[in-house]
UniProtKB/TrEMBL annotation, chain A:
It comes from the Bacteria. Signal peptide: none annotated. Residues 46-127 form the ApeI dehydratase-like domain. This is Beta-hydroxyacyl-(Acyl-carrier-protein) dehydratase, FabA/FabZ. Pfam families: ApeI-like (PF22818). InterPro entries: ApeI-like (IPR054545), HotDog_dom_sf (IPR029069).
TrEMBL record, chain B:
InterPro entries: FabA_FabZ, HotDog_dom_sf. GO terms for molecular function: lyase activity. The keyword Ribosomal protein does not apply. Belongs to the thioester dehydratase family. FabZ subfamily. It comes from the Bacteria. The keyword Lyase applies. Keywords: Lyase. This is Beta-hydroxyacyl-(Acyl-carrier-protein) dehydratase, FabA/FabZ.
From TrEMBL, chain C:
It comes from the Bacteria. It holds the Pfam family PP-binding. Residues 2-80 form the Carrier domain. GO terms for molecular function: acyl binding; acyl carrier activity. This is Polyketide-8 synthase acyl carrier protein 1. It comes from Micromonospora lupini str. Lupac 08. PROSITE patterns: CARRIER. InterPro entries: ACP, ACP-like_sf, PP-bd_ACP. Keywords: Fatty acid biosynthesis, Fatty acid metabolism, Lipid biosynthesis, Lipid metabolism, Phosphopantetheine, Phosphoprotein.
Amino acid sequence: MTAAPAFSATTRPVDTYEAAAAPLPAIEWVEVSAGPRGGIGLRAGTTVDPTDVYLAGHFPELTVYPGVFTLETIGQAVTAAVGYCAGRLPHLHLLRSARFLAPLLAGDTLTVEASVGPVGEDQSFDVTARCVRGDGVHAATVRAVYRWPSADGGNAR
Amino acid sequence: MRLGHGELRALLPHRYPMLLLDRVDSVEPGVSLEAVKAVTGCEPCYRGIAEGQAPDRYAYPASLLIESFGQGAAVLWLLSRGPGTTGLPMFTAARDCVLLRPVYPGDVIRHRVRLEQVVHGAAFATGSSWVGTDQVAEFGSMMAVVRPADAVAERKR
Amino acid sequence: MSDRDQHMAELREIVAEVLELEPEEVADTADFVEEYEADSLRAIEILARIEKKYKVEIPQAELNEMRSLKAVHEVVARHAGWQD
């Protein structure tokens, strides 16, 4: 077992979107700060764009940012913040709990504040995120485990 | 009972490219359902990948896999609610969802969904997703509510 | 263990799991909303688990009452016919 990898420098949001399959560019900006025990803190944000191709279908009569896109925003923010490990991007492995408390509509901003890591020996790390809508309303809370998949491409335990 | 794509469109408010089920192969309303989602490279989530990325970057986004399962749960619930019920099914909470291995274009996902409980307008579903004989995800608990569209659109303070 | 102690222990476990706390962190009279940042989704989740475990139906109007472990016990006892 090699030593647990450390978090690397941040990548730009646009690079994160272009690096892997994703329904939409789900972050406009990311800020990273040092956290306790080698972990990091991150802040990231996006704005709900009703002309996005996926959002046009969710729903045609009313744009609502789906809960899973809040997960997408958190995932892209985590990817941008922690970077690659042996050329691989971190994947969502375990969603311990997610709660979506308030709808995000066209033009709403979403701000994610998350604590990330530290990284375990199995290349996994915890992410605890609190999401706030532009008007200050608590929109979501997510607790998850991300990991860099092993070299065989699997994401198995 | 089997439901084709047209019947799914009649049940769900989601539309292209956010309608993430192709067919329901079997359903016992209010109890369980088996739904099919074929992943193709034509889906818009593959449009933004930069040229020359590694094969693992084409993994189907976790956010869309979870949404697809959730739509299976929504169909199961909506069928048991009977005709004349309208509104937007909103995915409000999840617990203990594990993503076991990546899914790629060409894979056909089968969701096995069980409706655990319907309480005071909230539904709780559980289940798993499979590609062939490989389990790709386990869903401990997914919670949804149905909200009238005008109630979602109304900005609460 | 008395019936009441047994029921309180079971309810404490349900509440702790939903609120993502350790059972010993859930005080008998602590207000879920003020002390543990609970919200309406959590309340419905607690209610759903109780209805499933005890095979009892609790009217939605009681949700507002169920703001602490002690209050939850009182509501469930009333509807489940517990003589605690």
